[in-house]
Structures are given as structure tokens and as C-alpha cells.
Amino acid sequence: MENDIRLMLEKLSKGEVSVDEALLTLKKEPFDDIGYAKLDTHRNLRKGVSEVIYGAGKTPEQIAGIIKALKSDGQEQILITRMDVEKAELVKRNLCGSVGFGEPERDAVQMDYHEDAHIGIVGGFKKPDGIGKIVVATGGTSDIPVAEEAALTAEFLGNEVTRIYDVGVAGLHRTLAHLDDIMSAKVLIAIAGMEGALASVLGGLCDCPVIAVPTSVGYGASFGGVSALLSMLNSCASGVSVVNIDNGFGAAYQASLINHVK
Question: What contacts 67, CB < 8 A, 6 or more positions away?
């Protein structure tokens, strides 16, 4: 993925920006202190991806304030994770506001909320620019909220995503019905609770990296996802790596990095 420094230098070499404009970009403060948060304004320069807002534990007013500050700094697309429905509604109201008679403010910010994933998106999705596609697969329907967090994050980061849901090993024929998608993936995200066997099965079928996501779905002995986590860590299939329980965002971020290595 081309980061902002490379793009800025390319524009400088083509004469699209002046030396002073390029220098101003590099001289910006590395963070913006807004009291309750210090926003990493250089994240995109270092990582190729701008700062993401983790919504859990933040108030709607704090989330809206961070969004407005990031927008003011020039970040057009913003991802907010782990935000429940009630909080999302309050954030939307805070962002839109009014100037009387129900008229929206001129600088109102629109946020799209995806309830299944508990994700908010400002500025829409960027055009896919990854090398291939990321396949997101789940063991069961109950794993879909984590899967949607992963799928939407991957799409937000500029990846083509194929979803394959409810293809767990309790009915292996369901998995095998999607072999074309599995074998054509650049990266595969395997999301499962219970005993977490899906990651090993997919790892043995595909020729690409598999990122396993254990979920907290399961009965008592699943220990809130610990059973699936340990199973995935002990996978006998080569090329399987594991992220934390229910961490769809982390899996998608890593998958996106792999899918953008040229």
C-alpha cells in the first residue's frame, strides 16, 4: 500500500505540489491533543492506514469529538469499531446537529452504521486496491457479528472481500462446496467458536495464509472462546496464525497488510 509520504513525494516530483506544501505535510504535529484523546495524525504516514476509533468505553460525545477532530485534520474516511446501537444513534445526532428549524449544520458529518458488526463508517469505502481477494469464512451463523467486523474492516481498508458463512466442520460438505473461492483467496480469515476446527480444515485446503479468529460462541466448556483459541494455536495445518478472541478487526488489518504487499 502506498503511504502518504510516497504519494506526496511522487506529486512533488511531478510538480503537482510545491516544496513548501510538501514540507508543511511533514511538519504537522505528530498528534492532536483534544483533552480526552491524543489523536495520532501521523499514523497514515507511518502505517499507510489512518487512526481507527475504538468505540467501547468511550462516550458518544467523545467519539463524535474525535471524528470531528480527525475530519478537521483532513482524514476523510474514518472507521469506528465496537459501538452499540444506542451509542451510534447518539453519535449520529451529535455529528449532524442543527441550526434551527431542523436544518442540518453546514459542516455536519454523516456516519453509516452497520449493526451486525457494531461498526460506524464515515466517508464510505475506498476503491479496492489489494492484490487479490480476502475470503472471510465462519463456522456458524452465530459467528457472523465477528465476521462482519472483519469483512467491513477489510473493505474499508481497500480490499475485495468474499463472505462464506456457516461452513463449519459439522457439515464438511458445506465447506467443500466453496473450494473455488477458498483456493482463489490471497488471504483467508477463518472465524469459529466451539472447538475452532475450521481454521485447520481451511489451512489444509488453501495455498494462502490463514488468519484464525476464535469466537466466544459455544457451550460451557468452550470457556468463552478459550477452547477455540487453544485449538487454533495448536493447529496441525501449516500457515495458520491466530488473533485474540472475537478480534475480527485485528484479523482484517493483518489480512489487508498481506493483500497489499507488492
Answer: 53, 78, 80, 91, 95, 109, 111, 122
